[in-house]
């Protein structure tokens, strides 16, 4: 009997070992405690103006009473709903992105750190500081204001939230340290906002959480690498995985367009576990051909080769070696303001796209290219750019393929080396070949190859000039 019991225990332990998960879970935490979503949201809205910040504060001044009976997801959705009263749908989507990054958590923590340096009075859920003296109740305001004149004013930071009022310089400054949405905050806010509106004081709000959560702030981990090496031997047949990227694309294209981005996220974030199932995906020849054509076109136009990754936002090239999700969020907010400004002016649809494609780079006044230079207007005596494609017609921007391409490129061209390539192109023999019926596209093949070879040896600043020249020759030929 004893042997049976021992054997049963061994089997139970064996079952436990076999069923134990192999996955490794890693997390990255900051040194400070988790900050409330409501405070992060207020900082996001505050970026659009001080007035909008205080309007949002008035709307959510007692919102945390709903937090007790709601799940975290429901409370999060409630915050988004309240923020939606002051944000457009596009800005609400950016707010979701910001909350996922917790990009404004450091700003909230900065106020928390300032509050801890006061230091806060004991057992106070919220407190005021009037020229160095503290109070935990609205009843203390009147008493502290009377004695404030004889003490120096506190230092105010650029990111401090000052209640809009008369902005007098000869009135006391009252700093409220409280958590937006709590009853204690609401009672202080009611009194201070009224007095600030009367011009008797300057009301400043700084975030303060009386009882921070014990959990540390979880960070997204962008730019952080966790190197884990598996010592298990895995035999992989290269012939079965060489087309995984194409098969992944085919899998994504096979689902409805509303689910395509979700599937792409799932495949990219869990690729090792999804790889085996992808090997069984059949790829249509038409799709494979289209992918190859797209790869060729991208390699020729902007230098993106298979395996590379590039990010463009409304035509702006985002260098992923320089930018991170936080700076990309700033770019997206800037682009959103431009789009909404155009929309408010009545510019919508395809007209917005045309305006966004206009060059917005600053003009370098130290250098200008004279388009009347012989390298542009003449290849050799008697040969003009305007007649190289149509020798019998009158020189015109409309009737000349090459002229339109060069005109579009060289108006913004700052690279002298590009003009040298153009000079080689515009020769007497080029005009003779065109007169004999040679197609412009065939004539430009050699020139484009020279441009591309030179492109590889240039800096990123000068590459943009070559891309623009190659692009225009490609389009107009």
Automatic annotation (TrEMBL):
Boundaries of each UDP-glucose:glycoprotein glucosyltransferase thioredoxin-like domain copy? 377-437
Q: Which InterPro entries does the entry mention?
A: UDP-g_GGtrans, UGGT_TRXL_1, UGGT_TRXL_2, UGGT_TRXL_4
Report the residue ranges that make up the UGGT thioredoxin-like domain in this protein: 35-214, 232-357
Which GO terms fall under molecular function for this chain's record? UDP-glucose:glycoprotein glucosyltransferase activity; unfolded protein binding
Q: Where is the signal peptide?
A: 1-19
**Keyword terms:** Signal, Transferase
Report the record's Gene Ontology biological process terms.
Answer: ERAD pathway; protein N-linked glycosylation via asparagine
Its Gene Ontology cellular component terms are:
endoplasmic reticulum
The record's annotation in Pfam families points to: Thioredoxin_12, Thioredoxin_13, Thioredoxin_15
Q: Superkingdom of this entry's organism?
A: Eukaryota
State the PANTHER family in the record: UDP-GLUCOSE GLYCOPROTEIN:GLUCOSYLTRANSFERASE (PTHR11226), UDP-GLUCOSE:GLYCOPROTEIN GLUCOSYLTRANSFERASE 2 (PTHR11226:SF1)
Protein's name in the database: UDP-glucose:glycoprotein glucosyltransferase 2
Q: Which organism is it from?
A: Liparis tanakae (Tanaka's snailfish)
